[in-house]
Amino acid sequence: MVEQAAERLREQIVRGHWPVGTKLPGETTLAKELGVGRSTVREALRALAGAGLVRPRQGAGVFVTATRPTEDWPARLRRAAVTDVYEVRMLVEVEAARLAALRRTEEDVAAMREALAGRRLAAEGDDAAFVDADIALHAAIVASARNPVLTDLFGEFAPMLREGLIELLDLLGLRGTDLRHGEDAHADVVRAVETGSPEEAARLTRKELESTLALLQSTP
């Protein structure tokens, strides 16, 4: 009911029924027009506020602030080219690896080693399992940077990366001759983080990611 109410209100705003700057009718009036309860209207207005279409003003009411919804970050990522996402991923992970080498704890090292072993074991599985294990290792390295913003950014990229990497492995058959594709490079990154070598960790991460980006860019 909330989604339906929000969609009907959104349509009216997009069509210009209520121009920007207009105060919306009260909850009671909207509830009667939509045939729903006031609580449903309230939740629908919250959804519209989250999309940037309206803004409540304390004691004054709810006003239209835009006639087009603001595209949220996950939606933008889903629409982006995988190569564009991968370029930003490089920026995040190179710095994350450098910070991880400075901040990692014994627990972080154990998590990275476990993820590295998991990636090695997943080499015997299908491409999807291998990519999942690979992303889990990268996530462990990013988490070792001890920066929640970096961790959240990587988490946003992960679904898009997973899809693109599975397609890449299937298209190019990279694991046909090398089931453990990239194992040594990943082990070197973990070692650099573990030994507290920030510049080496950053350099190795960049090198490993650049090789995959080059493959992505060369794929038709």
UniProtKB/TrEMBL annotation:
Domain HTH gntR-type per the UniProt entry, residue ranges: 1-67
Keywords: DNA-binding, Transcription, Transcription regulation
InterPro entries reported in the protein's UniProt record: GntR_C (IPR011711), TF_FadR/GntR_C (IPR008920), Tscrpt_reg_HTH_GntR (IPR000524), WH-like_DNA-bd_sf (IPR036388), WH_DNA-bd_sf (IPR036390)
A Pfam family per the record: FCD
Protein name per Swiss-Prot or TrEMBL: FadR/GntR family transcriptional regulator
